[in-house]
């Protein structure tokens, strides 16, 4: 039963990543692309968590945590660049 | 052990549903300031729910309880409003809504 749920969740997360990729390529403005990239970071955390349950190992936890921290920092840095034209003033 | 599988499956499917709903919102909504709501609320809730599912699964499959997945949930719930705030400020600075008859664009 858990294997069926993991397969369905993998399919839904892959579809979500494809929708994010469409917005990343199409997005009319720059904040749209940053938002799509941030959503791809968060969905990749979900994919790492799913891989950890699927392979029954806790190795992917650190990767998920690092992706979470780096995604937040990159989103804040690129938004700051759009606002000010500079990241650290 | 079956009840644990049912609970973990429920949280996994709930999380995948909310993450997919956020991405569909990012795909379909028509304005940037409406598109901002899908990923920052629904996707955060979905990925947090999947991390909770992972915490429940590893609490019953390894020895001892496993709470470090809750760290990811906590971090996402803290940082999602901050990044949404920065993105909204960047979008206002880019003036991307001033030609669409938006209420703010007189």
Automatic annotation (TrEMBL), chain A:
Membrane topology: Multi-pass membrane protein
Bilayer-crossing regions: 6-22, 34-55, 61-83
Intracellular or extracellular location(s): Cell membrane
One MF term in the entry's GO annotations: sodium:proton antiporter activity
Keyword entries, A-Z: Antiport, Cell membrane, Ion transport, Membrane, Transmembrane, Transmembrane helix, Transport
One matching Pfam family: MrpF_PhaF
GO cellular component: plasma membrane
Similarity comment: Belongs to the CPA3 antiporters (TC 2.A.63) subunit F family.
Protein name (Swiss-Prot/TrEMBL): Multicomponent K+:H+ antiporter subunit F
Origin species: Desulfurispira natronophila
From TrEMBL, chain B:
One MF term in the entry's GO annotations: sodium:proton antiporter activity
Transmembrane segments: 6-27, 70-88
Iron recorded as keyword: no
Pfam families reported for this sequence: PhaG_MnhG_YufB
UniProt entry keywords in alphabetical sequence: Membrane, Transmembrane, Transmembrane helix
Record bears the keyword Transmembrane: yes
PANTHER family: ANTIPORTER SUBUNIT MNHG2-RELATED
Name under which the protein is recorded: Multicomponent K+:H+ antiporter subunit G
Organism whose genome encodes this protein: Desulfurispira natronophila
């Amino acid at each position: 039963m858990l294997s069926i749920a993991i397969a369905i969740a993998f399919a839904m997360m892959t579809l979500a990543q494809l929708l994010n990729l469409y917005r990343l390529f199409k997005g009319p403005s720059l904040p749209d692309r940053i938002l799509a990239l941030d959503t791809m970071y968060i969905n990749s955390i979900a994919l790492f968590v799913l891989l950890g349950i699927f392979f029954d190992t806790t190795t992917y936890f650190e990767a998920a945590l690092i992706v979470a921290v780096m995604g937040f920092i990159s989103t804040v840095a690129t938004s700051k660049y759009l606002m000010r034209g500079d990241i650290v003033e | 052990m079956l009840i644990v599988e049912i609970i973990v499956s429920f949280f996994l499917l709930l999380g995948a549903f909310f993450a997919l709903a956020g991405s569909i919102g990012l795909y379909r909504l028509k304005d940037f300031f409406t598109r901002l709501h899908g990923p920052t609320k629904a996707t955060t809730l979905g990925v947090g729910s999947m991390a909770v599912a992972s915490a429940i699964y590893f609490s019953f499959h390894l020895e001892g309880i496993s709470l470090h997945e809750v760290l990811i949930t906590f971090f996402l719930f803290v940082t999602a409003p901050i990044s949404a705030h920065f993105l909204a400020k960047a979008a206002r600075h880019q003036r991307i809504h001033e030609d669409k008859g938006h209420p703010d664009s007189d």
